[in-house]
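Record type: monomer structure entry
Structure origin: computed from sequence
Chain ID: A
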Amino acid sequence: MNNIIVSAYFKIPSKKGHNEYVYYLQRFFRSIRHPLIFFTTEDVKNEIIRFGYNLTNINFQIMKLEDLKAWNLGKDFWLRQGIRDVEKYHTPELAAIWYEKKEFVKRAIEIVPNNVYIWCDAGCIRNDESEIALKEFGTRSSLNDDKIHLQHIHKLPYKKFYTYPDVRIAGAIIVGNSSAWNNYSKLYDIILKEYDNAGISCNMDQYIISSSYDLLNNLFVLHVPPKESNVDQWFFFLGII
């Protein structure tokens, strides 16, 4: 069973401007060596091709932003999450992309079945240390145990719902086989609706992940950052997976 990296990028109103993300994308695509399924639009693909890097290991999947499964929840769903969210830079489009991580992986499972799938945010390669780690990313271990493997950043007392400024589990890199991802997807949707029904914003995937763990912790394995690492703690899987 192989590791398959899955990622995506769309031009949307986000925390940073497109030009800054292009800088991160350049780092990402010039250094990634492992097979990658990458979801994006045609114009972004062409922009990446113009970087001039070797892309033979990249499987581009072209889609439109309006084709995200997140929109099946309805425009009003995401608008009310934004109203509840104190971090107003969390646009509906950004929240939809965070939700869509699991849906991108499920699409990848259909394209290349029976593997271990590593979701990795395309914008997480922000310094030289992360870029160096990326060159071996996906080659160090295969976590084929029907569990979802997560980066545990900080210990936090149990809460029914997690909200700003809670910091517990990072969502930038998530690992699991197809069985684990499918179970996780169902659980995520259950927790998402619980937040919405309680009148609490479910924009941030980190909070939904934390509550998912609390509800069904035997589906997950939490990993803590290595004591000695030059990789940003929010992305420490880059150096160990």
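Annotation 1: The helical segments are 18-31, 42-49, 75-84, 92-111, 128-134, 178-197, 205-215.
Annotation 2: The domain at 3-239 is CATH 3.90.550 (Spore Coat Polysaccharide Biosynthesis Protein SpsA; Chain A).
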